[in-house]
Amino acid sequence: MRSDLRRLSGLTLSLILAGGLALAQGSAPTPQDLEALNYYVSNGDSRAADAELRRLRAQFPDWDVPSDLTTLGQQRSPAAEIDRIYRQIAAGDLTEARQAMDETSRNFPGWTPPPEMERLLATAEAQAAFDAAASAGNAGAAIEIARRTPAILRCDRVNNAWRLAELQAAAGQKPAALQSYRGVIASCSGMSEVTATLEKAEAVASDAELVELFRLANAQLPGSGPALKALETRLRAGRGDTAPEASAPAAAATGGAKRTPGRTAVAEADLPAAGRPRTAGVARSGGGAGLSAVRAAAQRGDWRSCTGLTSGATSADMLYERAWCVYNLDRPLEALAAFEPAASGRLGAQVARDARFGKTLALLALNMTEEAARLAAATDLTIQQRREVEAIILDQRGVRAYQLKEYRRAIAFLTAYEDLTGGLRRDLAIMRGYAYLNLGKRTEAKRIFTELNNQLATPETRAGLNASR
């Protein structure tokens, strides 16, 4: 099993970004290449159609241009099918997504699945297989799946490494389990990942091994000494050492948490998926007839037309517009790739800032919370952008902490979210109630559920009230 999870995480993201910019080549344009020409012809814009036709002829010199350009509209692009495949992957309908991908390839001979779609589906399939093997207690199968698809062991999926270590420990392979935990500590740079790993590793580590793990953590997280020392003191106290247990505030100082998919078994209410805005206000750049049509589609919220018009785009201007459109079609992987040229500064400082804001939102849409937090911290966002990003980060960290049964942290994150936004969504408020309940603070939990039930009585609030009595 590979231990360099952090390097893999960066490599995976760089491949996504590189692959997302690849252009289809061939002797004739595909239906996607003809989207812009179709648009101009159908709207009677002969000047723009002539310009697009010249571009296509230069790119595809062997193409026989139809004498009647109106027939091009019959070569339909699989935009709707592509959207459906991404939605199926996001919903976990992986068999249907694979079938839809194969059917789309057959029905549209000029179309091949983009690399990021293939990778996303392959990773989701590997995750599902890993989950099945882990649930069955089959450590050998889980290890083999992780070996074939190491992307499932990257730092933003750290729970997979934890589950693998737990399987190894249950199979009596404590040295292997300890090595799995050691790999996370040596590779992941998030405070929450490291501290949670140390807490889990304590169950299989000897006193000397625990000292070694904390030494490794201190080397990995310089500047976090006080928080790590508090955690070490608490873990040693649990072993019967005379050192006093760390106080709750010190233990809470060990940082945020990352999201894992799924639902907790503690509460009956559905846990929230981290929210994100459907649109974003951004600075605009450049000009040109084609760009004007793209912007017009984006301004009226016609994301599909915008995406079709920017198919095969190579300019930073067009890719920037496309990035926001595919983001609003729930295709964050494509958005990450399309934002990159503008984010690197090709369109000026203000657009670069807004593109990095877009990349941050896309990372959050992929639940890559810590990667998004690092990018946001390194970007001079506007006050509004920073509040928006920080709210989503607190949302995701609160959910993740709850799923890890770190209820004090969950409450701290959700309270910070409430302070930042001026309120707490109902699903998050229910989660905070259950967090208090799991800490044995029934009075506070009952107060929350009573208030929610008085606002709107639902099966979830009644269940919370019954549980807190």
Automatic annotation (TrEMBL):
Residue segments, region Disordered: 239-263
Decide whether keyword ATP-binding is in the record: no
Q: Under which name does UniProt file this protein?
A: Tetratricopeptide repeat protein
Q: Does the keyword Transport apply?
A: no
| Native source species | Cereibacter sphaeroides
Superkingdom of the organism of origin: Bacteria
Q: Where is the composition biased (Low complexity)?
A: 243-263
**InterPro entries attached here?**
TPR-like_helical_dom_sf
Annotated signal sequence is 1-24
Q: Which keywords does the record carry?
A: Signal
